[in-house]
C-alpha cells in the first residue's frame, strides 16, 4: 500500500481527490479505518461474512445547510437500500459492498463539493453471531453421541441376542459385524445420516466402527471410533469430529446395561472463521424384555451427555457447552411377517443444556421410531430404521439407517 493511501485511511483524508469524482479504491475490512466520505464519492469494500462497517456523521459540517439530513446508500450482495446515519452494516455473505453519502434535500449543498460528510470504520467479524458456534457444537455433539449409542446398542443386541434400549435401532443394527474365529474378537461398523429443519436446516453423516472381546458370558469390552460431518444453515456453518473411546456391555439376569466414554477434538467453520474445541462425552443405557402375546415389549432408559470447550474465534469469546439428554421409553417388536420382524418405539426425552452465549435452557419432547430387520438368503441380516424427534428449541431432526450384518 502506498504512503498516500495509508495516510488517507488513517486520517480520513482523500489525497489527490478531484471534486465530483467517484472513488475507485476497493478497501478490505482491515484497511477501513476512519475512511472519509467526501462530496459525491462512492466507496467499495471487500467484506467477509460477519464483518461490521459503521458509518457516522462527520464532526463538522462545512458549507452546508445545518437542517439537511445525511442519507447513506448501501448496495450489497443482499440488495440495495437507503438509511440515515449513524448506521452499521453487517455482511451476511462474502462480497463487495458499495457505500455513498448524500444529503436530503440535495439542494442543501452544491453537487461536487469536497466537504467531509461522514467517515466509516470496519471491524472484522464483529457481526458474527456469538451463539452460532455454541449452537453448531450442541447439534454435532448431540448427533455424534446418538450415533455412537445407536451403534453400541446394535453391538449389545448381537452379543446378547436381546432387544434394543433405544428408539432407533433394529434388532440386528449395523452394516457389518462378525466374529473373527479363534480370537474371541468381534469387529463391526455402523453408518447413519440425519436431517435437520426449523431454526437450523442441514444434515449430518456418521460412521462408527469398533472391536470388542467377550470377557465372560455376560460381559464384553471394546473400543470404538466415530466420525461425524455436519453442515447447517446453507453450509455457512460446518463441523467435523473424530471421537474415540472405550465401551462395555453387561447382561445381568433379565436386564442389559451398556455404556461408553469418548473424547473428540471437533473442527468448526462459522462465518468464515475456523476454530477447534475439546469434547468429552458419555452414554449409559439399560433395557429389559417383557414377552407378550403379540410380541416382545422392551422398556429402556438412556442417558447421554457431553462437555465441550470451544476456542475463541474472530470477535467471539471462548465458549463452554454442557448438554445432557435423558430418554425413557419402550419399543414393541412384533412377530415375523413374510421374513421381516417389524418394530415400533417411542420415548420421552428431557434435555438440559447450558452455554455462555445463551445461558441455560431445557425442554421435554417425544421421539418415535419404526423399522424392521430381515434374514436374507445368504445368511446376512438387512435392517432399516427411521427415527424423528426434537433436537433443540425450534429445531427438529430425523435419522435413517440401512444396515447389513453377518456373523461368521
Automatic annotation (TrEMBL):
It comes from Celeribacter baekdonensis. Gene3D superfamilies: Autotransporter beta-domain. This is Autotransporter domain-containing protein. SMART domains: Autotransporter. Residues 184-397 form the Autotransporter domain.
